[in-house]
Amino acid sequence: MAYLLVPILMIVISLILLNGNLRSSVPLALYKWPSVFVAVVSLVGLASLLVAQIASSAKNQVAMINSRINDEDENHVRILKEIDSCDVLKNMGFIFIFTGDNQPKKIQNAAVAKIKTNPEWEQELLKYLDTDWAPDVFQFLASNDVDHPSIFEAPIQKGVLIQARLWRERIRKCSHPSHFYAGMFNWDVERVIRTVDKFQSKEIDYLPVMKELRASLNEPSELDKPKFSAATMLDKWIKEHE
Known about the structure:
Layout: H1 5-18, H2 20-25, H3 28-85, H4 105-115, H5 121-129, H6 134-143, H7 153-173, H8 186-199, H9 207-216, H10 229-241
């Protein structure tokens, strides 16, 4: 019954305060101190509620973080199993995506190490550079070293031209304005630029193929295209190397 005390006191105090005749006949102390008591109890209750809400929110945050960590751990285990099961003698291309420095170090190192279990891994990379897998090879080359950089210089030129063709095809395949967005080529161009900068030498000139890559962004479309961020990145690179 204790929980009824505060409401009852509030009702009694309200009746006294709202009734002038009654208020004048009741000693001040009879409703002043009960009012103070109600106020203190209310403040304590409010503070307790706030503390409980904060504690509950913190508990939920911790639970969400732990769940996210567990999900990430499970995903990492899945990826590591995928890398381990890849037959790099036949289809190493499927794990190129895991060789970039955007991946957790453990995953990147595992993918690179797996690829290098193929004794002819550099020759395989060169073969992939001459196919539509070229963008995936740039993922590897931008983030990892090779044993014989000079053998990659000319094939990288072909890879850039393949990237340009793939961009043109992608633009032509867009059938709705929502398919276009300013950053749609940023990932690819960042890998290409890092790769050509890494393999630049006196014997090779990447400027012509980089200009072709830039021109591919002007591929006509019946839809309105945004100003691609990749175009700005390539314009900057070309200006610096002309």
